[in-house]
Amino acid sequence: MGRPSHKIGRLDPARAAPAVEGPRSDDRDFVQVVARALDVMRCFDGAHALLGNQDIASITGLPKSTVSRLTYTLTRVGYLAYDVRRQAYQPGDAALAVSSTLLRGLEARAMIREWLDECAAETNGTWGMTLRDRLDMVFLETGRTNEIIALQSTIGSRVPLASTAAGRCYLLSVADSERERLLQEIAAATPEETPPLRLWLEANADTFARDGYAVSCGAWKSHISGVALSVFSPAHSRTFIFSVTVLSAEYGDQRLRREVAPRLLALGERVRLLADSLAA
Asked: DSSP labels for 76-133?
């Protein structure tokens, strides 16, 4: 059930068996399995932490068989991610999306926020840095203009994976097997969205591979258009999606490609260089 464990370096003895108050004998509301899962998550001290099952068992004092079941479950729901090459776990996208502590730990967010603000002022739109969490894209940073009140997004805001430019760009960015898995999840949650989404993906796959970005107009909301690209961060082992949302009345498909996409590609290159420097 669980992944094979792998020892990652030497553990600090001070980290072993974190002191977490257990339930009172009369506390019927306490859910032990939830507490143990949170104990597992507490073992990871940053975006770069890598731990095997044996490491986690040593830190928490839990039996390795219990840890194996917990890490398997946490991986299935996205709170852990398994690194096949290094045979170890790290915090997953779901944990990153909901954790303000981890968000504050992302390097150079202030610089990226400044770039997003500059781009937003040039295009009269909403620019965002997003990450997938299950069937949503979550905003980690935004750059906005005051003129487009309806498109205001804040950190932590969610938009659907299936119908937004950010989500569709993500689907085009991942491996075929991962894309199909997500499409099946979308079909189970919102069956009506799957046929048009599959058609869109098939129609735009070659263009995305050639141009490096995806354009989606009116699929999420009829008055909204968007363009997005993906940037992989070696420092975080994650794919971030940078997206631009504008009013369809101002930007159609061709104007998006002509005026907004070049700015987005330039931003993506700046972020890639920054990400490479952080990983060096």
From this structure: HTTSEEEETTTTEEEE-HHHHHH-HHHHHHSTTHHHHHHHHHHHHHHHTSEEEEEEEE
